[in-house]
Amino acid sequence: EVQLVESGGGLVQPGRSLKLSCAASGFTFSNYYMAWVRQAPKKGLEWVATISTSGSRTYYPDSVKGRFTISRDNAKSSLYLQMNSLKSEDTATYYCARPLGHFDYWGQGVMVTVSS
Amino acid sequence: DIRMTQSPASLSASLGETVNIECLASEDIYSDLAWYQQKPGKSPQLLIYNANSLQNGVPSRFSGSGSGTQYSLKINSLQSEDVATYFCQQYNNYPNTFGAGTKLELK
């Protein structure tokens, strides 16, 4: 059974940093691209980042480019999202997801609140 | 960026009824379109991919159709467990983009 379990969320002040983690199991992690998708409270879904199988290629929307960094450790079957220079508009539930174009598996999500 | 316009924003229907949700892309996405169901407090679940392919384990009362810029999700014989918010997503181009969602409630 595929499982994606996020951790590392919490309350952080504007301008500070936070790193999210996602532990994957139930599939060969190193064979798949991985991604982060977020959802602001009572809002829709926004794709945040995607990383290739080896980690050599990464993709971001303009809203987070230069501030967020996606990375992975295939030996640990783990995905990460380093978030710097956080803004109030980054407040959201962050989901780890497996992209095949569409996202076939999602984690349960972790809440990030950016507030002073 | 490709804009996904989803309609209606909310919908009220009776048990057993057939429901249709539409998604309009701002340009041709060549059937690179997925539908998700999200229940309150839960993560999204994939229903349909490639516009009309049913994800494993999803009931057959769900179906997808469309091409080019116009797509739809159909739910036949609405069940109580179908109460949720539904989102479309295009993956033809980066950035992947989602519709704003359709909240489905029981009448």
Kindly list the characteristics that best describe this protein:
heterodimer; A: 116 residues; mainly beta; seven-stranded mixed beta sheet; four-stranded antiparallel beta sheet; 11 strands; 0% helix; 53% strand; B: 107 residues; 50% strand; globular
Q: Estimate what percentage of residues of chain B fall within beta strands.
A: over 45%
Tally of strands of chain A: 11
Whole-Å distance between the termini of chain B? 36 Å
Largest sheet of chain A: 7 strands, mixed
How much helix, percentage-wise, in residues of chain A?
A: under 10%
Order of helices and strands of chain A: EEEEEEEEEEE
Figure out the total of helices of chain A.
0
Structural class of chain A: mainly beta
Total beta-strand segments of chain B: 11
H/E element string of chain B? EEEEEEEEEEE
Give the helix tally of chain B: 0
Low-confidence stretches of chain B: none
Rg of chain A computed from alpha carbons, rounded to a whole number of angstroms: 13 Å
Span from first to last CA of chain A? 40 Å
Helix and strand composition category of chain B:
mainly beta
Report on the structure:
- The complex is a heterodimer of chains A (116) and B (107).
- In chain A, the strands form two sheets. In chain A, strands 2, 4, 5, 6, 9, 10 and 11 form a seven-stranded mixed sheet that branches. Chain A has a four-stranded antiparallel sheet with strand order 1-3-8-7, with no helix packed on it.
- By secondary structure, chain A is mostly beta strands.
- In chain B, strands 2, 4, 5, 6, 9, 10 and 11 form a seven-stranded mixed sheet that branches. In chain B, strands 1-3-8-7 form a four-stranded antiparallel sheet, with no helix packed on it.
- The model of chain B has no long low-confidence stretch (mean pLDDT 97).
- Chains A and B meet through strand 5, strand 9 and strand 10 of A and strand 5 and strand 10 of B.
What's the quick description here?
The complex is a heterodimer of chains A (116) and B (107). By secondary structure, chain A is mainly β.
